[in-house]
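Predict structure. Chain length: 107.
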Amino acid sequence: MYYVLCIIDMQPIGFGNSTLIIENVCHNKNDKSKPIQEVLNRSNIYVRQIKVCGVNTEYCVKDTVHGLTKKFHIPIKVIEKACNGTDRTIEEALHKMRTFYRNVEVL
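Prediction complete.
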């Protein structure tokens, strides 16, 4: 069993030498949960916890967390200090993630 860190909306430049990156997951929607699930399934990686952070908390991070909660019934942790955004709805997005999902914890 593995723990997975999903960094949403980060460019892969400069991380090519890392053995920890399974694959760059490119997708044109805010919810990145489907390609994340596909990569984990294809690599036969079974996870017991997912940690999520990213640049657009109020869009991509929130939507990805929503999708992950439907696909995985394991703890999902959002690393607040590693999240950022572009407008004031960041706090609303974090509040929703804190209160709406049973298996999500905002750290």
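Summary: The mean pLDDT is 83.
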